Amino acid sequence: MTSLPLGLVKAVRPHQWTKNVLVFAAPVAAGTLFADGVIRNAVVAFAAFCLAAGGTYLLNDARDVDSDRRHPTKRNRPIAAGVVPVPLATALGAVLLITAVGVATLAPGDGSNYNLAYTIAAYLSLTCAYTFWLKHQPVVDIMAVAAGFVLRAIAGGAATEVPISKWFYLVTSAGALFMVVGKRQGEAAELGADAVALRPALAAYTPDFLGYLRSVSSGLLVIAYCLWAFESASTVANGNGSVFFELSVVPFLAAVLRYALLIGEGKGAEPETLVLRDRPLQIAGIAWAIIYGYGLYLA
After folding, report:
1. Do 5 and 83 contact (CB within 8 A), yes or no?
2. What predicted TM-score, i.e. pTM, was given to this entire model?
3. At a CB cut-off of 8 Å and minimum separation 6, what does 260 contact?
4. Would you state the pLDDT for residue 203?
5. Domains of the chain: total
6. Is residue 106's pLDDT more than 60?
7. CATH number at residue 86
8. With contact defined as beta carbons under 8 Å apart, do 31 and 296 qualify?
9. How far separated are the first and last CA of the chain, in Å rounded?
10. Which of 45, 78, 104, 202 makes an SS bond possible with 7, Cβ 3.0 to 4.6 Å?
11. Whose CA is closest to 147, among 165, 125, 167?
12. What is the pLDDT of residue 124?
């Protein structure tokens, strides 16, 4: 039996906070990560999103407690298991959401720019709408979850006041959609015959339709990244680093193909766990980071 304090920690799902690393994407891609105050403000954005996500998980699990108790794995979550009372989860979730908006006002330090707070507020509005309605609407539920990832990436630019390029938006949007489609495929494979009863929206998703979405999103992701890399190679101030942007396409494509393979095997239900456990995917990601980072910061 898990104690209440440990149950509360598990209920905010700290293992899923890896998604919030996306707030560092905009300043990293812009080459301004080490500029004055950028890392500080990005960390503030990361903390704000961790609070917001934790509060959202508490409210979502409190609302879905009955269906979670019928789920083969979600029934072990602290709220569904009865370790954390529903009223306590609801109250703590509301406190975390309010705190998240308050923390967001700390970036940038002079308090003159509230774009991060506005982004957090938009994320909370989206997640609340998802909890109460959007999760039951086919296609819309996929778009809503993908939008949550995109808002994380936007938050990094808002917190650090880094201009976001059109290619950044396109790559993050296509990548988020690709990941969420894999999540739905993984959930359908994991739940089997109980999929529709536990998540009604899955009734509308045939294997052919999910395969189509996977092809469209992954194709758009690869094309958008290639165009971004080639454009960066031609516009980068230091011409010596241009070739590294082009070379970064290779490990990026390897990572996309590897992830597509894992999705096809029905392993995409928890993307944050998959990224932390699959060694070939990690190797491709590290190779991309080294090549792209060297071209942007060191070459």
Report:
1. no
2. 0.85
3. 182, 214, 218
4. 79
5. 2
6. yes
7. 1.10.357.140
8. yes
9. 54
10. 78
11. 125
12. 92
Q: Are 2 and 78 in contact (CB under 8 A)?
A: yes
Residue 152: count other Cβ atoms within 10 Å of its Cβ: 26
More confident residue, 17 or 282: 282
Which of 98, 132, 164 terminates a domain? The answer is: 164
**Residue 274: which domain range?**
166-299
Q: What is the mean pLDDT of the chain?
A: 86
Instruction: Specify whether 170 is located in the same domain as 150.
Output: no
Give the per-residue pLDDT at 239. Answer: 53
Tokens of 100: 């998240």
User: Which DSSP string do the residues of 11-46 spell out, in sequence order?
Assistant: HT-GGGGGGGGGGGHHHHHHT-TTSTTHHHHHHHHH
Say which amino acid occupies 263.
I
91-120 as b/e: b if 16+ CB within 10 A: ebbeebbebbbebbebbbeeeebbbbbebb
Q: Residue 236 has what pLDDT?
A: 63
pLDDT value at residue 29: 84
* Chain centroid, CA 56 distance in Å: 14
Based on the fold, state whether residues 141 and 6 are members of the same structural domain: yes
Task: Write out pLDDT tens, residues 158-210.
Answer: 888 888 888 899 999 999 999 999 988 888 877 776 666 667 777 788 888 98
Residues 47 and 157 placed together within one structural domain of the fold: yes
87 preceded by a cis bond (ω within 30 of 0): no
CB proximity list for 221: less than 8 A, separation 6 or greater = 171, 174, 175, 178, 256
Place of tokens 């296609």: 139
Instruction: Give just the sign of the alpha carbon dihedral 184, 181, 148, 255.
Output: positive
Q: How far is CA 6 from the centre of its chain?
A: 25
Q: Are 139 and 172 in a shared domain?
A: no
> Does residue 250 have a pLDDT over 90?
yes
Looking up tokens 């072990």, which residue turns up?
A: 76
